[in-house]
Description:
This protein is mostly helical and 182 residues long. It has one domain: Serine Threonine Protein Phosphatase 5, Tetratricopeptide repeat, CATH 1.25.40.10. It is built from 9 helices and no strands. The chain starts with a helix and ends with a helix.
Amino acid sequence: MNKIAIVLIAILTLTWSCEDSNIKNGDNQGAEEVTFDTAMFLNDIAKVEAEINIDMPEKATFQKAITLFKDYAIIFPKGENTADYLLRASDFSHHLGQNSKAVELLDKVIADYPNYDKLSNAMYHRADYLDFYLKDTVLAKQYYLEYIEKFPNTAFASNAQTRIDQHFMSMDELIEMFTKQQ
């Protein structure tokens, strides 16, 4: 039985190496050619955007939009709308309770599109999602500090500073602070 197994392995190895050789040499008869229809892809994005603009889209519509928007970013990384699509995909992920995915998408926006006009929004929401939804206060604090450093004169900067300050307060201190504010 061992001899049969060895012969089968040898035949399969020879067959695979011949197929690889034929493909490398340009002889790929029978191989399917993969094509991409850009117009159809952009039409799919337009359709899902129209579905999202109705009053109460279904979760499946949001999930489809997330997938299409992420695909758009892969296909057109320098596209005019790429950062916007990634930001919207993050918003939809958050809406669906997929906060880890939302943060990953925001990380991509921040890393790949440093001149994006909505970078402030992306940076603040990344810290916010980590803080409130994923309960990673250490990383949230780091991102709040980065936000304050980059955008010190925004309304969100004071919110970020408040969150940082509150992370180091005891429950009694927080209660005292909130009662003084009211």
